[in-house]
Amino acid sequence: MTSAAAHDYSGVPQGAPVYELTNVSKTYARNQVVALQDVSLTLRKGSFTSVIGSSGCGKSTLLKIMAGLIPPTKGRVILQNKPVTGPRRDIGMMFQQATLFPWKTAAENIVLPIEIRDGKAAAKKAMEAAHDLLEMVGLKGFEDVYPNELSGGMAQRASICRMLITEPAVLLLDEPFSALDELSRDLMNMELQRICREQNATAFLVTHSIQEAVILSDDIVVMKPRPGRIAEVVPVDLPRPRTLDMMTTQKFGEIVDRIRAMLDKGEDM
Ligand SMILES: Nc1ncnc2c1ncn2[C@@H]1O[C@H](COP(=O)(O)OP(=O)(O)OP(=O)(O)O)[C@@H](O)[C@H]1O
Fold this sequence. Notes:
The protein has helices spanning 59-67, 106-118, 120-125, 127-136, 152-164, 182-199, 210-216, 250-265, and strands spanning 17-28, 33-44, 48-52, 74-79, 82-83, 91-94, 170-174, 202-206, 219-224, 229-235.
């Protein structure tokens, strides 16, 4: 990575399909639970998509399949024109907990994916990029700090850098800020939006928060349970860049209400 800012991961044109899921189904063999049924979804280059739905409707299963961590029982998952058959270097992931290694500094944690993939020499070379990324997320000066000296929000900022260091084509985000207090979470979401715009990233977020989904997304995938499937994909036509004060607008409220009504209907949807 030469520059952390304004970097385009793939050269794929804005709006072109990056991820394509076709009739993806998953039945867990152990208990025969149909976790997903016929999920079809296209993520376009530079778009932000959230998935929301009640507990057990298959959100995590969907994310794991997209990440190549588990195979679907049926259906196709294509990323950048190649089937996803296992974990891939063009997929970036971020989880609820920062999971930084306590014995490594912030910068060492960030280059770890490179070290695992390409060895120590490559990790050393990537240090400059790690420093650029830390600066981008407002952590300049924290390069040599250990995780126990970072706040929860700072640790998640470092995790964002670790996800970006391998220049993934797509960012899969599993409730990355749900462990933070509400104020930090709102600020981190705005930061996430800025980073996605700067990096022209394609992002997919699992969340339980309707507000979070609305403020961040171009599209919200509303799922329903038993079996887990897509109820509706709701477009969010609020202007970009989004700002936190948009959360008080009538339009924002209307979209939130619409999604809440869908979720309340639950299985009748
Ligand atoms: N490894 C597994 N083996 C068997 N069943 C599973 C497994 N993982 C998930 N399930 C089942 O599949 C269904 C979907 O689970 P999943 O975790 O994908 O839902 P979710 O929407 O992410 O839920 P939550 O919001 O609570 O995290 C549930 O009924 C769950 O019990």
